[in-house]
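Project outcomes to date are best conveyed with an example. Our students and postdoctoral researchers have been running inverse folding experiments weekly, and each run begins with a structure described purely in tokens. The record below, which covers 396 residues, was selected by the lab manager from last quarter's runs and is presented without edits.
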């Protein structure tokens, strides 16, 4: 499809602050649009809801670039191998196998027992801000809460929690190659922890992953490290973004915030609307075309890279009434913030539980909290795939 779409830098502050007008234009004029992302190269942006869901469900769009005929250099370092071999990079049959074992572990370990601990950590973090006139809600609340939550779920001993921020930062660093010393420290730590849990199982997800078995099949030692790493990485920054952007959105919509304060029973539906509206994950991770395909007049060639833009699908007027309105009681709300198809988020119930507790307690404790900066001055992280604030100054 030919069009006159101006180039937009998808990692710029300007785009991250308000990506929605650009995506509205693409949905209307160029629903399958080729652009370029610095450090990644050419990509097709898929922006209509139905197409996003179709691409995420269609096995002709693979996760593993080798299945789309791309030549990939096999990494030599163990650390890079671990980082580039996890269920988010697999296609079937290995994806089904590893996801099945991981799902068994999640089911066995459960998440409900963590609600009390998450509520207690939330209270602690809020108490630490009480008495101050200002705070950075990202640094003081939205970042530490999911970090402690995912660490507890995995079974990272409390005395090691303070090492996690540095480790996660290196493992997710969007700017250039990671510091191999720090990355190695993180992965070897997880490797030792899986070994310890094999000897002495506890009531945590790492022990459940070690024990997960299906017809005699189990995760190999390297798969255990890779799956634990994937869960930690997929489960931390996404939740940070939801809590910080969600809080920002609520404060920018005082009428909706007031509704939530009046009726805390709306917390679950408010979280769904924050997931839809604030786009903590801007697009699903890469897909590669296994074969040539035609979509809306665009010719996608085998091997091409596609991004299914979740932030755009969730604002599609064909699906959502008044899609740019933030409505915490929206029903139905069939958002795709957790993806769709085979790679649908495995941590959705855990993320929803955390966010509900976080928002309920946050605005109970600080009902008069406001953003302490003009909305257009808030700094956004310049990274692909995810969309999140770098800081959220607030006044109580
Ligand atoms: C607000 C929070 C979260 C959001 C918005 C979110 C969103 C997503 C999305 C969109 C995908 C699909 C990616 C794709 O198809 O390319 C995904 C996959 C995944 N998520 Fe989440 N996620 C969140 C929290 C979590 C948490 C807390 C965990 C772990 C406890 C988690 C674990 C995973 C895993 C393991 C996958 C890969 C599944 C697979 O490849 O089969 N996520 N998530």
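After processing, the design step wrote out the following sequence:
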């Amino acid at each position: 499809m030919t069009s006159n779409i101006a180039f937009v830098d998808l990692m710029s502050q300007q785009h991250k602050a308000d990506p929605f007008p650009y995506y509205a234009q693409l949905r209307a004029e160029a629903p399958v649009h080729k652009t370029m992302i610095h450090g990644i190269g050419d990509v097709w942006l898929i922006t209509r809801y139905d197409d996003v869901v179709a691409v995420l469900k269609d096995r002709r769009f693979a996760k593993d670039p080798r299945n789309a005929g791309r030549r990939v250099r096999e990494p030599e370092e163990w650390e890079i191998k671990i980082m580039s071999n996890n269920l988010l990079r697999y296609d079937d049959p290995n994806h089904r196998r590893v996801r099945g074992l991981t799902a068994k572990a999640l089911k066995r370990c459960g998440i409900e027992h963590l609600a009390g601990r998450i509520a207690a950590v939330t209270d602690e973090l809020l108490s630490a801000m009480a008495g101050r006139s200002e705070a950075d809600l990202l640094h003081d609340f939205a970042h530490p809460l999911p970090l402690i939550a995912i660490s507890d779920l995995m079974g990272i001993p409390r005395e090691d929690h303070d090492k996690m921020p540095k480790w996660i930062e290196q493992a997710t660093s969007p700017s250039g190659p990671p510091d191999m010393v720090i990355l190695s420290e993180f992965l070897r730590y997880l490797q030792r922890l899986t070994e310890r849990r094999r000897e002495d199982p506890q009531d945590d997800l790492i022990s459940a992953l070690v024990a997960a078995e299906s017809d005699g099949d189990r995760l190999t030692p390297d798969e255990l490290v890779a799956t634990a790493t994937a869960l930690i990485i997929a489960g931390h920054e996404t939740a940070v973004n939801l809590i910080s952007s969600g809080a920002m959105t609520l404060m920018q919509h005082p009428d909706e915030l007031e509704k939530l304060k009046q009726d805390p029973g709306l917390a679950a539906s408010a979280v769904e609307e924050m997931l839809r509206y604030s786009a903590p994950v801007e697009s699903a991770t890469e897909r590669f075309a296994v074969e040539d395909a035609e979509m809306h007049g665009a010719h996608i060639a085998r091997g091409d890279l596609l991004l299914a833009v979740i932030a755009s699908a969730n604002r599609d007027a064909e699906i959502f009434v008044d899609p740019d309105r933030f409505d915490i009681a929206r029903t139905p709300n069939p958002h795709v913030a957790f993806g769709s198809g085979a790679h649908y988020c495995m941590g959705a119930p855990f993320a929803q539980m955390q966010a509900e507790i976080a928002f309920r307690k946050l605005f109970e404790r600080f009902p008069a909290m406001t953003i302490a900066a003009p909305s257009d001055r808030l700094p956004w992280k310049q990274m692909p795939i995810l969309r999140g604030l770098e800081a959220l100054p607030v006044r109580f």
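The chain has one domain: 13-395. The longest strand covers residues 32-37. The training component of this project remains on track.
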